[in-house]
Write a structure and sequence with these properties.
Layout (H helix, E strand, L loop, with lengths): L1 H10 L2 E7 L21 E3 L22 H10 L4 E4 L2 E4 L2 E6 L5 E6 L13 H12 L12 H7 L16 E8 L2 E6 L6 H5 L22 E6 L3 E6 L20
Antiparallel strand pairs: 1-2, 1-10, 3-4, 5-6, 6-8, 7-8, 9-10
Length: about 250
């Protein structure tokens, strides 16, 4: 009876997650992990917007460091696909198709998805993310090293081997329509889908490349620094049924 009362109380309050940031971690590997377990919910009456950059705390999925910060990224951001029951499944892309030769991946995006900063997910946003990861000359690149991209795909745009071939397995991306993109590879990669399911390849709102919470996840950023990160449920999450339960069924502290 006591546990039921605590659960009811938590539903009336804003759920927040406190995660402690720690040291640097290695670049993402080719194997994506399963979706993280629901975070422990701590009842709170605090509010706050999801647009803060978190001060000196860097939560850019493509360049994030620290195990706890990486865990937070898993709640703030989403990729085109996720790993579910050991297989790649749709996330921001509700469906996808692979060509017979394994060199082309078509992703059909969900319509009506909104980033935490208020902008809409579309093909242009996805293309902007891939260009930022791949092209060292891209205007949205910033000062990040994008080590996860190099570790997973072999290299960046313009980099070649001694025999003149591209170092990268990735060849480019094109817009088919407002909600469909086509990714081209130089060589087949059986792990391509699980690679892009890792947090490093989450899709960020281009409006928030310079800083801020530009994710689409079930949680939004509330506050944070080098020591703590506080998140709260995102009411505009595309899977609305998931928001009320997100974090609420975990034990209270």
């Amino acid at each position: 009876m006591k546990s039921k009362s605590l659960l009811l109380l938590s539903l009336l309050l804003v759920a927040s997650i406190i995660l402690t940031a720690c040291g640097a971690s290695a670049p993402a590997t080719s194997a994506a992990t399963e979706e993280p377990q629901q975070p422990v919910a701590t009842p709170s009456t605090g509010g706050g917007s999801g647009s803060s950059s978190g001060g000196s705390l860097a939560l850019d999925p493509a360049n994030v460091s620290g195990e706890k910060a990486l865990a937070a990224v898993g709640y703030l951001y989403e990729g085109l696909v996720r790993v579910k029951d050991g297989k790649a499944a749709g996330a921001l892309a509700e469906s996808f198709q692979v060509s017979d030769d394994g060199l082309e991946y078509t992703f059909n995006l969900r319509s009506g998805v909104t980033f935490h900063d208020g902008s809409a997910l579309n093909a242009d946003a996805v293309i902007a993310n891939f260009n930022r990861w791949f092209d060292p000359q891209d205007a949205n690149r910033g000062s990040g090293k994008f080590e996860a991209w190099a570790a997973n795909f072999g290299g960046f745009k313009g980099e070649t081997t001694t025999d003149g071939k591209s170092k990268s397995q990735y060849d480019g991306i094109e817009k088919v329509n407002d909600f469909t993109v086509l990714v081209h590879l130089n060589t087949p990669d059986a792990d391509f889908l699980t690679k892009i399911a890792t947090p490093a390849f989450s899709i960020v709102s281009p409006a928030s490349f310079a800083g801020g919470d530009g994710g689409t996840g079930a949680y939004k950023f509330v506050s944070g620094d080098d020591s703590n990160i506080t998140l709260a449920p995102f009411a505009g999450y595309w899977d609305a049924a998931a928001v009320p339960s997100a974090g609420m069924d975990a034990p209270l502290k």
